[in-house]
Amino acid sequence: MTPSLKIFPTICCSSCPRTAAYSGDAATGDRICQWSFNRVEGRPAIDLRGDLIRTILLIAAAVVLLGLYLKGKYTQKIILLGGLLVLSSYDLLAVGRRYLNEDSFRRVGGL
Amino acid sequence: MVEAGVPEDNALQNGQFLCVLGSAEYYGRAVYLGAVCFFLFILGLVYVKGWPKWWLISVAVTGIVLAWGKSFPSINNFIFDHLPYYNKFRAPTIALVMPQFAFPLLGALGLDQLLKSEASKEEIWKKFRLTVMITAGVLVLVVCFIFGQLQGRQR
Q1: Cβ count near A58 (within 10 Å)
Q2: Is A108 on the interface with B (CB under 8 A)?
Q3: Sign of the torsion angle spanned by Cα atoms A57, B146, B24, B6
Q4: pTM of structure
Q5: Contact residues, chain B, for A53 at CB < 8 Å
Q6: Contacting residues for A40 by C-beta, under 8 A, at least 6 apart
Q7: Measured between CB atoms, does A26 come within 8 Å of chain B?
Q8: Which whole-number Å values give the CA distances from B86 to A19, B31, B95, in the listed order?
Q9: Is the pLDDT of residue B92 over 60?
Q10: What is the pLDDT averaged over residues A38-61?
Q11: Which of B15, B125, B132 minimizes the C-alpha distance to A28?
Q12: Could you tell me the residue ranges of all domains in chain B?
């Protein structure tokens, strides 16, 4: 078989033959597809407006931090680098926690 | 999955199957580099001179083009079919690790050159203003895109 990009199928399709083939029968395949749909739809929606405001504020803070250093309002490089480190860490960790947080490590069934 | 009516004995098996072949919508969303990192990347584009800037830009662009996958078939199908071992990767979006490496590195180089710069204050300030203007321009484009998306959803 010639390799092609089609080897990455979309699971969320009730007619997906690979899901049905793997799960043994079409009915189970359909239930798995429905389960996948529910998982995707049940995920909290991204707050585009909130994220945009957050992005603008973070960039503005970085610009002010760098601008004040260039203006000579403070001369310690450690303040500039520390400030940028704190801002970027807050930025990345806040987004990362949406995907990996304490809920990701819940014990299931008393295990 | 069991609650959805899938027999318990093959729920685990199917779970493993979904982990391997799940669609992009299933396993996550876009790679996030960070707003501050993006600002520093533009700072790097303005401040860094010479070959380090160009190879890092090349790496970032190559990674983004590869990550488009079947959305840009003219190049990606050719690479997929002819580049040895390229078809062994889990998904084309894995190539986004290249811009994830290039963006912060160029940002760090830009910041380093800014802090060690011996140019006049006016020159440095001029470049800083250019950086802020480019960032603001990109932000305006993003704002237009997001409001377009929101209006599309409301319709």
Answers
A1: 20
A2: no
A3: positive
A4: 0.71
A5: none
A6: A12, B25, B26
A7: no
A8: 25, 21, 11
A9: yes
A10: 76
A11: B15
A12: 1-30, 31-154
Identify whether the C-beta of residue B36 lies closer than 8 Å to the C-beta of residue A59.
Answer: yes
Q: Is the pLDDT of residue B148 over 70?
A: yes
The answer, for B51 touching chain A at a CB cutoff of 8 Å, is no
Q: So what's the ipTM on this one? A: 0.75
Collapsed DSSP state (helix, strand, coil) of residue B22? coil
Contact flag A5-B77 (C-beta cutoff 8 Å): yes
Closest-CA residue in chain A for B114?
A70
Q: Give the model's pLDDT for residue B80.
A: 87
Q: What percent of chain B has pLDDT over 70?
A: 79
Cα dist. B111→A78, A88, B76, B81, B115 in Å?
Answer: 13, 14, 34, 40, 6
Average pLDDT of B57-86? 89
Instruction: Pick the residue of B6, B16, B23, B36 with the most A CBs within 10 A to test the interface with A by mutation.
Output: B36
